[in-house]
User: What shape does this take?
Amino acid sequence: MVEKGIGQPVPRKEDRRFVTGRGRYTDDINLPGQLHAVFVRSPHAHARIRRIDKDSVLGMPGVVAVLTGADAEADGIGPLICGWMIHSRDGSPMKMGTHRVLATDKVRYVGDRVACIVAETPHQARDAAEALVVEYEELEPVVDLATAHDAPARVHDDIPHNLCYDWELGDRAAVDEAFARAAKVVSLDLTNNRLVPNAMEPRAALAAYDPGKDEITLYLTSQNPHVHRLVMSAFNNIAPEHKLRVVAPDVGGGFGSKIFIYGEECVVAWAARRLGRPVKWREERSEAFLADAHGRDHLTHAEMAVDEDGRILALRVDTKANLGAYMSTFSSAIPTYLYAPLLSGQYRIPAIYARVRTYYTNTTPVDAYRGAGRPEACYVVETLVDAAARELGLDRAEIRRRNFIPKDAFPYETPVIMTYDSGDYATCLERALELADYAGFEQRRREAAARGKLRGIGIACYIEACGIAPSQAAISLGAGVGLWESAEVRFTHTGKVQVFTGTHTHGQGHETTFSQLVAEALGVPFEDVEVIHGDTAATPVGMGTYGSRSQAVGGEAILRACNKIIEKGKKIAAHLLEASDADIEFEAGTFRVKGTDRQKTIQEVAFAAYVPSSYPPDLEPGLEASAFFDPPNFTFPSGTYVCEVEVDPETGQVSVEKWVAVDDFGRVINPLIVEGQVHGGVVQGLGQALLEHAIYDRESGQLLTGSFMDYAMPRADHVPDFVVEFAPGSPSPSNSLGAKGAGEAGAIGAPPAIMNAIWDAIGVRVEMPATPERVWRALQSVRMPQAAE
Amino acid sequence: MPQVRMRVNGREVSGEVEPRTLLVEFLREHLGLTGTHVGCDTSQCGCCVVHVDGRSVKSCTLLAVQCDGAEVLTIEGLARNGELHPLQRAFHECHGLQCGFCTPGMIMSALELLQRNPSPSEGEVRAWLEGNLCRCTGYHNIVRAILRAAEEMREAPQPAA
Assistant: This one.
């Protein structure tokens, strides 16, 4: 076994800089002569901009420039884009409202960018931002998703009914037919609450223009620096792609929110060139609440048809999804191709039909947030399954067992365009039930009742789809980019290894897991491997990190580059050992002539490649290789979460008492890190289920939960200790590692597990977040007869 | 502009600051100690926790001028002679950090807990951390790390930080 190789819980090599305060985040970087930018944001949800009085601040101390949308247009800065084209049921393309880097005609949400003040110090910029006189003509806002279709106002004047697209997936006729012959039909109206991502590091950007090279360098809180560079050059006209360098240094969490190309980074980069001095911007948290793309926000009517034994016959889903005021970079794909194709869950469902309409509202744009579409789908399916079990009087584990896709049925084609790669759902469920002592639950319920508490248990069996793929299929469904990944692996003279990856790590620990991968593949010490990422000038063109793709797609690219190195190394070794290529075998860092003890280490071979004193005549010197990997399919992690809650009937307070997670992530590279991904994902799911909710005032469109004082984030004392176990696992056949991805599972599976547990505890279903008030009110509604006595 | 002097990580420092300059701004922008982070503007997140005169404080809640003459310890001053403090080591070994942004504040906050209570229970650790937000770890491994560091510090007491 290779020391610190695949499968071992190696503590992370990146930790040292973080625990000593030597991390280097964007806001930690300063450049000589830098200016500071502050954005003036709309205080109104919907208004026409009548006038921006630049003179009101131009004489203030330190103010260097006031930039507006008109200035940006005059300089040819292009609008922001959405990179995934969706077509409506009638074949018409989605209706994209113009999204400028700075508003020109109208502002469309509280926080919309109106102007950018650039000044010598952050305080001076902030003072001027507060003083800038902007005259608005207020307009009636569209706030409520449910009524956006018939709202009198239009977010974009040229888009009727505020409807972006009306999309469908699946066989409607087959679903109607199945419902007609069903023994039982259950139907639910579900709200998937709007969330604010809240990575702990707010967004930041620092741009510098080098007139000698006519080049812009942009330090940015980005999950995908090459995607930023591509969009900012091809669509926003910030600079030609080869004259724009994007560096994403240490990034303090993303969860989706740092994928997108926002107006702020475009303005900062443009301002740096226009003003000829570096320009820095750091978001305040209260800005982040308004300006970072939100997540979720669905209203769904869902119906499930079952036979008398609880076998699912069909699923019908009608969803309205909130886009916010503008389309964000990938916002069209989230409630469509990342949502409806997951509606089969872990179950054999013969017919599924989904209709999705997305609406503009005068709220912050909505885009991918950890899970992105898949948590919404899982919540629909797992809530319906519980509803069906209740309707039929079936045990909630048993109904799942009866409907699982059996483990010998893979690859399994669902009625909603997915082909699941592998899975063993029953094993995960049974193990989770065992760890949770499901059989002993009723005893615990009775004990809790004796203490005056209502105890409930909930199960959720989730499916995730990671690493959107293959590129050709994604592009045929509307994606504007390929979704492969790249890597370059380079030996140095002294036998050290540099790995350049197109993915980006912002908490996931790639510097460690990729090093483990390379240590295993090349037989070099873990410590001799350095992973380089996040700089378009250093790394190969790559698509970045989101959708739990880095290991399954990026890891495979690294492995393939390693294999190319080994192939070349064999030729060099054969020459050095005076043998034929075919007789050389490679194992654990050593090239050996088969059946002999004649050998060369990979470090000796690397040295020979760079100092070719004795070298194959027809071979290039050097030992490095690059590879691109375009996966043949998504990977499909799965698992079962079991949650036990206790509800205080006097206060409605829910406490999570016990948590069991059994996940099948295929092959796990580093269990320590992957467990951490589960913990973090589950707590984000717990936040959605119990605490978090972005609430807008229905009249004014003001965000009422705009700070950590009103938006409840999960804290250490909200959450229990977790039991996390990995199932023996069904490796993915889509990559040679067998890896499936693990980043989003927790956020996908946790909300229904918790909500089903609360439903079980109090006997009535409540919407997320299950705040004490909601739970208490729900309890009063079912206790009314008692109360009347 | 007012002049402030303080001892930061054992070193005498001074600077001229605008009166409204926060301690965290002084540390980050004047002294280049960027290990102390700013994660919010309402003193909720705890990313900016440092020690002032031996007590953990959110450095966004104090003006630099209020700390004139104070003894300040930041995350950069915790390791001694390249040797990690038991808390730093435990966060690493227990995988108590992911993106690392909340980590300095978490460690500095936990340090005061362990100075006050060398043997906290899991519940006491969780309650103490109510002023520190983490979005990555789900707190599980942070709590484990603090309990492990407490154990190590009980066995081999540290010189006062």
Observations:
- Chain B has a mean pLDDT of 96.
